[in-house]
Design goal:
Blueprint (H helix, E strand, L loop, with lengths): L3 E6 L14 E6 L3 H13 L10 H8 L5 H8 L3 H4 L16 E2 L9 E12 L13 E7 L5 E4 L25 E13 L11 E3 L5 E5 L7 E6 L5 E5 L4 E5 L6 E7 L2 E6 L4 E4 L5 E5 L7 E7 L2 E13 L14 E13 L7 E4 L5 E5 L4 E5 L10 E5 L18 E5 L5 E3 L4 H4 L7 H4 L5
Parallel strand pairs: 21-23
Antiparallel strand pairs: 1-2, 3-4, 4-5, 4-7, 5-6, 7-8, 9-10, 10-11, 11-12, 13-14, 14-15, 15-16, 17-18, 18-19, 19-20, 21-22, 23-24, 24-25
Length: about 450
């Protein structure tokens, strides 16, 4: 196990362009105990020193431990001397994952390609006591041409078109940004990819993908997803092939990467550590009851959300054989939340109060956030996708969030996002403190 070094990237004194991170804590894995000791001594003894004068050899070693492009971006935002140590493209561009062959995993496609999206909390540069200082949640996806697209953090609905006064650049020297989660989506191709073209593709069964990078530049990786059969499917870049994992009798509901390891939960709530195709270990016994199980990480602990569903239909609908899924739709009627005990008993324990925590359940990723870090929001609730699908685009200034609802653990109530202004403002429209920067 590699030692873990927690580095607070707070305000850097006397740098050419200091960035205020409000004591953001970022955890990186360090392969050398010497780096750990040296950096710790520097942090303790040099809190008022000129951080721009840190040895470049040390900065380079620390930068090699970063796991995401956002880590590199934050590092380079500190000052010009830090920026000179690391080039902006240290990792594979999110839109440039290699083509994944079919090899019999699907009968309807030539192969697959993978996209990565990141969900951020953009903090207000204004004092929190100031009106309209609410934070903003946003999903960012970089396409194959290097262009960033903004989307609803819980779905794939794009924010298009953006308001006319939306800035072309979000300066991290002004806006503190926190990466809440990453999501990976498999798309299948209905043609042989003879160029960089990636159009005419659809999500693979709309299932979540858990992805793990095995080396620094991202050229070696392994991922797992849920096949249409309900079994796990694993792809290793070194093998270049898909492998089915016929382990659980019941279909799997969710997969995730937790503390660097793959976890999967089946429809009963039985949860497994997936180390390889042949090594799967039960880590939690079933919790029968609900209709869909979702894994979420919160404060370094593993949570299980049990979703209770019913079948609902649109009012005044007209039967359309071409699109029957637009008529009948699963609707959420309740939740139960569990936390994995850390005593090795393989038991889920019921959680009746999340305290300051908010759980967010999206189409392709789930994450948690502290309510105290989100202006004017309260914890002990679940924000999730529900109801009928809304249009895939958001009008300029108008949020079509009819597919998002909030579940309150205290009283078990479910209500649409539109009834909670403090939560709705987390999504759309963009805060005034962002749009007001367009002319600066």
């Amino acid at each position: 196990m590699l030692p873990i070094l927690t580095i607070p990237l707070n305000a850097i004194d006397r740098c050419q362009k200091p960035i205020k991170w409000d004591f953001i804590t970022h955890t990186v894995s360090v392969s050398s105990l010497a780096i750990f000791v040296l950096t710790f001594q520097i942090l303790i003894k040099s809190s008022m020193a000129d951080w721009s004068l840190l040895p470049k050899d040390l900065l380079y070693l620390i930068a090699q431990c970063f796991e995401t492009p956002f880590d590199t971006m934050r590092f380079r935002s500190v000052c010009s001397s830090w920026r000179s140590v690391v080039s902006p493209r240290r990792h594979r561009s999110p839109g440039r994952f290699p083509f994944l062959p079919n090899h019999g995993i699907s009968d309807t496609t030539w192969g697959f390609y993978l996209t990565k999206r990141s969900v951020f909390r953009i903090g207000s540069p204004m004092d929190r006591s100031t009106a309209h200082s609410n934070d903003w949640l946003i999903k960012v996806e970089e396409d194959v041409y290097g262009r960033n697209k903004l989307a609803n953090p819980l779905s794939k609905s794009s924010y298009t078109p953006l308001p006319k006064n939306f800035p072309k650049v979000l300066d991290l020297l002004i806006f503190p940004a926190f990466e809440l989660c990453q999501e990976f989506v498999l798309h299948y191709l209905n043609f042989w990819p003879v160029s960089n073209r990636t159009g005419d593709a659809s999500d693979l069964y709309r299932e979540k993908v858990a992805y793990k990078c095995l080396n620094y530049d991202g050229s070696e990786f392994v991922l797992i997803t849920i096949h249409v059969s309900g079994k796990l499917a694993m792809f290793k870049s070194g093998d270049g092939r898909w492998s089915m994992i016929p382990h659980s009798v019941l279909p799997y509901d969710d997969v995730m990467l937790f503390k660097g390891e793959f976890y999967a939960v089946d429809n009963s709530g039985a949860t497994f550590l997936v180390e390889s195709q042949d090594k799967i270990t039960l880590v939690a016994e079933p919790v029968f009851g609900g209709d869909k199980k979702i894994l979420v990480e919160s404060n370094g602990e593993l949570f299980l959300v049990d979703m209770y569903l019913t079948i609902d239909s649109k009012e005044n609908f007209v039967l359309d054989d071409k699109n029957p899924e637009s008529i009948l739709h699963e609707k959420t009627v309740g939740f139960k939340v569990f936390k994995l005990r850390d005593d090795g008993s393989k038991k889920w324990i019921v959680v009746r109060d999340l305290g300051d925590t908010i759980l967010f359940l999206g189409e392709n990723c789930s994450f948690s956030a502290s309510a105290s870090g989100l202006s004017r929001c309260k914890g002990n609730c679940i924000v999730f996708i529900d109801g009928f699908p809304c249009p895939c685009e958001e009008d300029d200034g108008e949020f079509k969030g009819s597919d998002i609802a909030i579940f309150c653990l205290e009283d078990g109530s479910i209500s649409p996002l539109s009834r909670h202004a403090e939560y709705s403002l987390l999504f759309w429209p963009p805060p005034h403190w962002i749009t007001s920067m367009s002319g600066s």
